Model the fold of this input.
Amino acid sequence: MKRKFWSKQILDLVPYTPGEQPKINDLIKLNTNENPYPPSPKVVQVLQNFNTDHLSRYPDPSSSALNKVLADYHQVSNNNVFIGNGSDEVLAHAFMAFFRQQEPILMPDISYSFYTVYCDLYDIKATPIAINNDFEIQLTDYNIANGGIIFANPNAPTGSALSLSDIEKLLQVNTESLVIVDEAYVDFGAQSAIELTKKYDNCLVIQTFSKSRALAGLRIGYAIGHHELIEALERVKNSFNSYPLDMLAQACAVASVEDDEYFQKNLKTVCDTRDWTEQQLTALGFTVISSKTNFLFATHSAVSAVDIMTALREKKIIVRHFTKDKISNYLRISIGTDQQMQQLIAELQQIIK
Done:
């Protein structure tokens, strides 16, 4: 078998499992937290007018134009911004750059499962910190020796969010290691910690264009932090892939950031639909974790999560189920269009009966 040529670390590695991407007609896909609406019309214009002759050349390795618009948008300097091929790549570079320490890193026991994969891949020691019974991260539990701290805010897959003041309290006591705040869903109602990166040199914030900007298919992510943190990320990037973001992705990302009116309108639409869906689920007897994301995390006392998921799939609606003990009876339901969520509720009414 070819596996005899594999290194031991790869043999033992348990890779991240992405959300299912089935090819089924008329499917209502509520399992991967994608934005149900298209990106900005300005992005469409970029795609329609792009000069394909340029594709014979390498893209700008520094994504200079995108760097500038992001720096302006977040009111930071250009050397406070790092851009990568999706936030997953940015996270991977950050784990390599900062977390290979003597002490273990700290992270929630229920969170984005890619974190543990990076630890295994890079041989990083980690200590999981339990979220509380309300599925909330308690940052006071992180006041112990560590080689770094990472958490998603809002957290995934639960959807709950931390306050900026709680994050700042952590930074005030945890001064000797890096704190990474993964803000993939922050635009849907949570407070960003980007302002804290201007006060604390050990705070790195990572965001993505995949969710709120509806550009998951282009893989665009970035980090904001002290210039020395950005320099370390650049060192890793240039030792791995000097051209992470292609020309189309760079141009589309710039257009997206420049169309803030469309961005804010899209966010409001998704959040309004989320809040309506939460009310409907609660009326059906679900317990729903208060969400600041574009998904809901819910459980029903009378019908198991697996049974609900299976019944919905028969109706061509797919949602996400996790097998971890603490959350094995919960479903993560991405927010779709109003029509999709109305159909979801109609089907759930029949299933719960």
